[in-house]
Amino acid sequence: MATTTFYTKQRCNWIEGRDAKVDEVMREWMHKFCTLQDVKICVSTFNVNGKSPQSVFPTWFSQNKEDIAEFYAVGLQEMDLSVGTYIIDNTKKMEGWVDAIHCSLPGGRTHFNVVGSMRLVGIFVIVFQAAHSKVRVSDVNVKYVATGISVLVNKLGNKGGTAISMKMNDTWVCFVNAHFAAGNNELERRNQDFRDIYNGVVFYPRSQQDGLRDRPLEVPVMCLYDHDVVFWFGDLNYRLNTDIYGISNDEVRRIASSEKFGDLFQYCQLQEQMARGTVFKDFQEPKVLPFRPTYKYDCGTNTWDTSEKGRVPAWTDRILTYKKYPQVGLELIRPMESVETITISDHKPVRALFNLKVKKINESGANSVYEEAIRESDRRANEELPQVQLSLNEVDFGIVNYLEPKTRSVIVQNVGKSKVRFSFKVRPNAQNNQEICEKWLMVTPTHYQIPQGSSMEISLTVSISTDIVRRIQDILRNGQLQEILVLHLENGRDYFIPVTAVYNNSCFGSTLEKLLSARPKKEVNLIDFDDLESSLSDNCPPNVPRVIYRLVMALRARGAVQLNIEEEQDNEVFNRIRQALETGHPDDMSQIASSYMLYSALIRLLDSLDEPIILEGMFKIIHKEMIRYRTDARQLWTVVRSSLPKPNQAVLELICLMLREFFSQKYELRVSDQLSLWGTVMFRHDITEEKTHGMFATVLQTMCDYAADVALG
User: Pfam families per the record (predicted)?
Assistant: First the structure.
């Protein structure tokens, strides 16, 4: 009987990605079996501020012959700002922008074909290839990651990223378009958006499966850093830290309007964070951007923002690149540009032209040296065992809160005599080969290669999302969040890193029953305020939790006129609201935050409860009955009174009272899909079922139009 050995014909074909050590040798010998082809790639990003496109943008892309690219990758942000788009998919705006971009490419739409596209509400990425191009494109995969925490409570993303992965000949390329959190005070939220997208963008390329037929339990996964090249672009929203250095808004505007605008780049938050290794590890962009800040302008002009907010100019719109290895041939062949002639938005488009040396592998040539490469990689592995030092052997996050991500760093120092490749092992009983830890913990990056003498910062982030907080009691162990990460060195040992955190139980993620019995957390004061407590809350109905009552009464006191549903989310303000709810001070919350932030907090609170306010009942009988009687107020309130627990009835009536007042005070709220939004919160129905989605909004509208006492006589 013939004996199969490691070096027999069965293992003679090289498949890149199967063995990193062998791949390293094969890359060094690439000249023996590869040819390279120069390919021009133009990348552009544009925050269009919800505007509809004109038929063509003649100046968006250079029409000069030497600047015409084979591939165009375009990312849009805020393509559609209407609330209805977050609830029901509407492609009208997208189709208009695709047509406008296509017509704006050099030579028009007949000269380019769409390779792929991906959309997440208003975040859209599309890649075109020239009709005459000889580059073979294969394994096109798309992905989106929602990160936005808006008034939609993270059900769908108003922030996040869309990505397209593909092979150009035999070079893996990924295009990522992202929109990070806005606001001068949201730096950590932006950093967290990067981590969320980095961890969430994974692909399952079909061609990679062939190399794993002998390992059927391993699902082939391709992460961002597994690509040869990554183009990451979009409205990253990093601002200028000029206020820290005492530079006024007026002075920033004066400098930004002069030829010395580049002097402001030293204050860029993104440059600072990249220098610290906090985000975009090993990504590159020019040391100074050769164009004025791209945000914020009065629409239709090149004038800095003259609105009441008067935003400080900033380079929010960026294009960054990553190369997996130094041997990858990628260069910027024209200075990056902003297109100031396009004025429909409060942002300017940014474009960049690159040359990428795309490899084409001669398979017979690669296979002829493969066995020799295996032996060479074995020899190197035996001579150079990996060694690292960790800055922390365990990570304790202390107290963590709902929707308040907390990050800690672990530095991995390569102290050995060779490169070190590490990865985190998949946890026991994992659902897939990406699941290295519980969902409340995020690790960035999950695998990496550290050159000799260098180090890598691993970010660990605890993030208690709405989905997590609803089942927090099932996750806690001995009152703590606990996890053990296993960091594995390729051809080396494992390092076990215990991670712990204490969740601060709050009104978010609770039940109506617990909220009814909860008392405010005592604050230590020199004066005892017990006798002065809660003149407002004393009027709280018996079946309504105090925290819900206080938010609703604060909103009613402010009125709908002050509610701007397009206001930017401010997590610092949200944390202040949460603290006020938990401590009971101030009892009257109408002055501690804007109407929008109170409105958003109320929606978050209701959405975080373990069950919806309007329970579906066995076999969804309650929801079915309410849809059946959706225009009959008497029947609807009869169903509510006969089917829902008393606390659910009381909260529903209070919310309908508030909405009834708001809709009468500000009619545009009624026609701005706020009913659809509240329907998703109160019923938690499947928002992808378009047939019934509008019906739940009708149910709520009917109950808002006719109070229970009126409808039931």
Answer: Exo_endo_phos2 (PF22669), OCRL-like_ASH (PF21310)
